[in-house]
Fold this sequence. Notes:
This protein is mostly helical. The protein has helices spanning 12-77, 80-85, 111-136, 143-146, 163-176, 181-202, 217-225, 227-249.
Amino acid sequence: SSTNSVVPAMPYSMRHQRVMRFVLGTATICILAQASACCFRTAFTSFRSMEADVASKQNSAGSLARRMVLIGAIGAAAPPAALSIGLAQDFRPLESIDSTKRVITGDMNSESAQKAIKIIKDTRDRVQSAVEKLDADREADFAREFAVPPPSQQSNFQPPVNTDVKDLRWASAQIDGLMDGTTKADTERVGRILISAFYKTINDTSFRAPVFGEQGWIGQSARRAEPENVKRLRGEMVNLVQAADKLLSFVG
């Protein structure tokens, strides 16, 4: 007889049960993990959707609020006639504005009105003088006529405020204040044309006079030598004079 001990075999049913429990346990863990991941994705997606919806509503509310503020500001500042035209869409040329139909409700003899009229007249006369200077000398300097400092006194960081523009804005506003609602829409349009013509002139690439020795004077001299540049610059000055004449016709 053999002396080796024999380990009794585990019953098949018991082994089968343990294997099944292991397999089922593992499967359950996998299923729970997948379910958790799915729930997390669903919750995250819902959160982002809610967040986007809230942001959209906030943006819509902000845009609406800004529009309401803008409309309110325009409504408070603009006369009824300007609103009917559309202040930002009033592109009427000078020739379409008739000053003979003006209705003056303010005091043209007041100190502020007379000062405003003088500012417009003086500016008009200076620009007309600049036109005559350009006709006589295509390299003429217009710094004095347009209150533009020489390049050596200009700063690239903070451009100087043009005193003529500041005065013209004030004077135009004074004239606007003398008119009724309909006429005010006309004078406001003419005032904007006047300011725009002033800026177009001083911002023209050929405006600055070529001064010998200054930086870029050779290129500037070449610009003034081109007939089309001189013609354009002169036309901008003439437009300014015409706008000033039109504005003065409302108070003349």
